[in-house]
């Protein structure tokens, strides 16, 4: 039979952002596949070199749309390392609350993404409704729903509003009580369990071959390799949380780990609210003018754990008012490009969207 | 795992064992260390580090230094058991940037090298498709992340500004908005040059 060329995307409910996958199929089995990135390329790395350090804070959250806070955190960490700046204690805890909410919202979005390719849209409606409530918390804290620009160099932009703790506790308690329901309508739902169980496998040797990090790696290797545990940043070394793992990585076990991580994030938020001290939340970088501050010379990499794996900014400063070079290490780079080329062939066409969703591919991260 | 100094010492010992000439060493923090080495030593260093457990290539890219007429390559490695990020940096010639590919050591470098070729023009012999286009479609200028590439000049050249007939524009003498706009321009220019001294 003749091979036929098909496009997946650029718009698809299973895809975060626009990137298409070229599929060469025989029947409904994929024989060859390539990611076609570039539809979201906006030249971020070049633009950042031409903007002030302060200006860049407004630009960086756009690098990954579903989870913008990790960009802010990584950028802030990199500049603080170069400036040798001590962040106030309270700011660390507020940052952790923001990052964990961002993780929950990204996981809910990815879990809801299961609805598109399997036709079970109930999951998507539930997940997006809950995500919306998290965005409302973000709006109360930072004034913006999606791009918060809240974590800045030297701390966070402003202190938490007064009555936010009650809202946060109400939301996380409600979310926690509904996690079992998510399990029932999603990964334990008999109508779709055949689609996700024992399909889209990720064997351990493939993980090392590709360099996949995050949930993909933890689900296949049974090792708790999480940047938050291994090289702790903020105050992750002072909270108790588990890193869920498994030794068999199919679509279902990866989604299962996502739900378990939501539970762990909720625990971290609770502990952060308890342990958070009072005090200032921001220090000024204090070199040069208030807006045109400079950063000492140096090369630094600042890794954080995103919902898809290790994410970081490689930053080079020449001592000027703008960065000399900013490189973005997208967490979905290995599985998105090399993974789709080498390991997607063999799956069925209808599983391709599930592949992209459960492996955690965020296309703006690849393009940037 | 929490003994930071011994972790960095371990890395030092491994680098010493390879007998590679270290041009510069920089300890960034407890979890990160940087070495600058010669171009010829890249493969020896990376493969011996991989044997010792630095199995993950986190990032590969380049930095342009036009003043020194050099291009700097950066390889970022990580080991999950001994948590130290290692930056391996090496400066190469800017006129003919060429480095042998490392996909034999780290298969994940394939696409990073393609991207580095597209954005910096570095050649990676050994990588079968480093010259294929990845992100930029039909690019017709010098690689865009080089410092001498000016996005504004490129855009003016590539997309010439349109000429509009006068009656649709603010240049139209009958347009009453025109005076307002001119006054605004003058005011903005004054502010830009630091305001007017009274």
Secondary-structure blueprint:
The complex is a heterodimer of chains A (368) and B (198).
Chain A (H helix, E strand, L loop, with lengths): L3 E5 L11 E7 L2 E8 L7 H6 L3 H7 L9 H15 L5 H24 L2 H4 L2 H22 L8 E2 L2 E2 L7 H14 L1 H7 L4 H7 L7 H7 L4 H7 L5 H4 L20 H25 L22 E9 L2 E9 L7 E5 L3 H11 L5 H11 L3 H5 L1
Antiparallel strand pairs in A: 1-2, 2-3, 4-5, 6-7, 7-8
Chain B lengths: L3 H14 L4 E8 L2 E6 L4 H10 L4 E10 L4 E9 L6 E9 L15 H12 L30 H8 L18 H16 L6
Parallel strand pairs in B: 2-5
Antiparallel strand pairs in B: 1-2, 3-4, 4-5
Across the major sheet of chain B, the strand order is: 1-2-5-4-3
Q: Determine the N-to-C terminus distance of chain A.
A: 39 Å
Largest sheet of chain A: 3 strands, antiparallel
Unreliable spans of chain B are: none
If you average the pLDDT of chain A, what whole number results? 86
Q: Level of helix content of chain B?
A: 25-40%
Structural class of chain A: alpha+beta
Q: How large is the share of residues in beta strands of chain A?
A: 5-15%
Distance between the termini of chain B: 66 Å
Structural class, judged by helices and strands of chain B? alpha+beta
Oligomer: heterodimer
Backbone shape of chain B: elongated
Explain this structure:
Chain A has helices at 44-49, 53-59, 69-83, 89-112, 115-118, 121-142, 164-177, 179-185, 190-196, 204-210, 215-221, 227-230, 251-275, 333-343, 349-359, 363-367, and strands spanning 4-8, 20-26, 29-36, 151-152, 155-156, 298-306, 309-317, 325-329. In chain A, helix 4 (89-112) runs antiparallel to helix 6, helix 6 packs antiparallel against helix 7 and helix 7 (164-177) packs antiparallel against helix 13. By secondary structure, chain A is α+β, with helices and mostly antiparallel strands. The model of chain A has no long low-confidence stretch (mean pLDDT 86). Chain B is of the alpha+beta class and 198 residues long. Chain B is built from 5 helices and 5 strands, in the order αββαβββααα. Chain B has helices at 4-17, 42-51, 109-120, 151-158, 177-192, and strands at 22-29, 32-37, 56-65, 70-78, 85-93. Chain B has a 5-stranded mixed beta sheet, covered by helices on one side. In chain B, strand 3 (56-65) and strand 4 (70-78) form a beta hairpin. The longest helix of chain B is centred in the C-terminal third of the chain and has 16 residues, at 177-192. Chain B starts with a helix and ends in a 6-residue tail after the last helix. The model of chain B has no long low-confidence stretch (mean pLDDT 84). Classes of the chains: A alpha+beta (368), B alpha+beta (198). Chains A and B meet through helix 10, strand 6, strand 7, strand 8 and helix 14 of A and strand 1, strand 3, strand 4, strand 5 and helix 3 of B.
């Amino acid at each position: 039979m003749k091979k036929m060329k098909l496009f997946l995307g650029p718009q698809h409910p299973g895809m975060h952002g626009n990137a298409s996958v070229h599929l060469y199929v025989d029947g409904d089995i994929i024989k060859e596949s390539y990611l076609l990135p570039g539809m979201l390329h906006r030249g971020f790395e070049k633009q950042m070199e031409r903007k002030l350090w302060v200006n860049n804070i407004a630009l960086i959250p756009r690098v990954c749309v579903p989870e913008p806070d990790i960009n802010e955190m990584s950028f802030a960490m990199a500049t603080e390392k170069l400036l040798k700046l001590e962040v106030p204690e309270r700011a660390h805890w507020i940052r952790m609350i923001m990052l964990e909410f961002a993780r929950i919202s990204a996981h809910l979005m990815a879990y809801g993404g299961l609805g598109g390719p399997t036709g079970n849209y109930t999951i998507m409606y539930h997940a997006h409704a809950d995500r919306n409530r998290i965005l409302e918390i973000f709006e109360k804290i930072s004034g913006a729903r999606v791009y918060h620009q809240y974590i800045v160099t030297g701390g966070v932009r402003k202190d938490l509003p007064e009555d936010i703790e009650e809202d946060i506790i109400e939301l996380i308690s409600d979310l926690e009580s509904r996690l079992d329901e998510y399990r029932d309508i999603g990964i334990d739902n008999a109508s779709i369990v055949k689609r996700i169980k024992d399909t889209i496998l990720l064997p351990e040797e493939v993980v090392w071959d590709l360099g996949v990090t995050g949930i993909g790696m933890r689900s296949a290797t049974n090792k708790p390799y999480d940047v938050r545990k291994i090289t702790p940043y903020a105050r992750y070394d002072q909270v108790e949380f588990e890193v869920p793992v498994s030794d068999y990585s199919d679509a279902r076990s990866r989604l299962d780990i996502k739900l378990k991580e939501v539970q762990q994030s909720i625990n971290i938020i609770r502990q952060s609210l308890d342990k958070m001290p009072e005090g200032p939340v921001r220090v000024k970088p204090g070199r040069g003018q208030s807006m045109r501050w400079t950063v000492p010379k140096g090369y630094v990499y600042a890794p954080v754990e995103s919902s898809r794996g290790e994410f970081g900014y490689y930053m080079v400063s020449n001592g000027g008012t703008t960065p000399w070079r900013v490189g973005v290490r997208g967490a979905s780079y290995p599985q998105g490009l090399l993974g789709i080329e080498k390991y997607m062939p063999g799956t069925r066409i209808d599983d391709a969207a599930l592949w992209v969703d459960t492996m955690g591919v965020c296309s703006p991260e690849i393009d940037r | 795992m929490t003994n930071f100094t011994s972790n960095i010492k371990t890395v030092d010992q491994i680098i010493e064992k390879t007998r590679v000439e270290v041009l510069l060493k920089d300890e960034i923090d407890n979890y990160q260390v940087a070495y600058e080495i010669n171009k010829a030593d890249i493969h020896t260093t990376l493969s011996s580090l991989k044997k010792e457990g630095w199995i993950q290539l986190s990032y590969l890219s380049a930095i342009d230094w036009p003043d020194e007429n050099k291009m700097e390559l950066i390889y970022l490695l990580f080991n999950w058991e001994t948590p130290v990020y290692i930056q391996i940096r090496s400066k190469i010639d800017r006129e003919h940037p060429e480095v042998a590919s490392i996909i034999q050591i780290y298969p994940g470098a394939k696409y990073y090298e393609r991207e580095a070729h597209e954005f910096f023009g570095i050649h990676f012999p050994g990588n079968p498709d480093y010259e294929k286009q990845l992100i930029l479609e039909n690019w017709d200028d010098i690689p865009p992340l080089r410092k001498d590439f000016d996005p504004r000049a490129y855009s003016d050249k590539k997309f010439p500004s349109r000429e509009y007939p006068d009656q649709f524009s603010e240049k139209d003498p009958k347009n009453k908005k025109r005076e307002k706009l001119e006054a605004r321009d003058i005011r903005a220019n004054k502010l830009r040059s630091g305001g007017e001294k009274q």
